[in-house]
Design goal:
Pfam families: DUF2459 (PF09601). InterPro entries: CHP02117. With 227 residues, the protein is of the alpha+beta class. 31% of the residues lie in helices and 25% in strands. It contains 6 helices and 8 strands. The protein has an 8-stranded antiparallel sheet with strand order 6-7-4-3-2-1-5-8. A hairpin with a 6-residue loop joins strand 6 and strand 7. Helix 4 packs antiparallel against helix 5 and helix 5 packs parallel to helix 6. The radius of gyration is 19 Å and the shape is globular.
Length: 227
């Protein structure tokens, strides 16, 4: 290899390393000490649902403080609501395939939140999915709903812009201000939400949905799907 080529190769590798550091620095995930399972004073519950490569988290609508999630005014008045977060084009299905996956993870892009009203018990709403029930205390429930609230992009009128139709007739995708990249993907977000709810989910290392479900089971109970 010529000296000129070696110089360009070193420059390329160096730039790549710097870029990975930049991405890691932009990973907006909380990290705190937690007690698994919510503790003896647990009065609430959340459900972690595996949807392919993604995880959604469902909560009782009544457990979300009034006004905390403005999007609840747009969805049906159901007992439960599920939220999930992902890349702005890949998650809704506007850009899929190999290029879509590469584009979604190779550099910071936009993101969206999927909101699904649930009019029945969570396992019944998703009969073919793995579902984990995680007990939470009032403080952990408050931290969880606060974490999710920060994932919505609220405009000057106090509303959250709709980004795309949802996977279901009654669900929608909403704009999010969070950057999406390889060090802050959908499973990092789900693990961080679980962490906020009191489960030690190690969000920075949760690159796959399997890791999210594993952590959820350690803090709760598998109620449906594979053990």
């Amino acid at each position: 290899m010529s000296e000129h080529m070696q110089w360009w190769r070193s420059l390329f590798l160096g730039a790549g390393a710097v870029w990975l550091v930049v991405l890691a620095a932009r990973c907006h995930l909380p990290r705190r000490s937690v007690s698994a399972g919510g503790g003896p004073d647990s009065t609430g519950v959340i459900y972690v649902v595996q949807h392919g490569w993604h995880a959604g988290i469902a909560v009782r609508r009544a457990d979300v403080p009034a006004g905390r999630w403005p999007v609840l005014d747009d969805v049906a008045d159901a007992p439960y609501v599920e939220v999930g977060w992902g890349e702005a084009q890949y998650y809704p299905g506007a850009s899929r395939g190999v290029w879509g996956a590469l584009r979604a993870g190779a550099w910071p892009t936009g993101s969206v939140v999927h909101v699904v009203p649930i009019d029945r018990p969570v396992p019944d709403r998703f009969p073919a999915r793995t579902v984990v029930r995680v007990p939470v205390s009032p403080a952990e429930l408050d931290a969880f709903t606060t974490f999710v609230a920060a994932s919505f992009a609220v405009d000057s009128t106090g509303r959250v812009p709709t980004a795309a139709p949802g996977y279901y007739a009654d669900s929608r995708f909403y704009a999010s201000p969070l950057p999406y990249h390889v060090f802050n993907n959908c499973n990092h977000w789900a693990a961080a939400a679980l962490e906020a709810a009191g489960c030690d989910a190690s969000p920075r290392w949760a690159f796959t949905v399997g890791q999210v479900i594993f952590r959820a089971k350690a803090c709760g109970t598998l109620v449906q799907g594979e053990g």
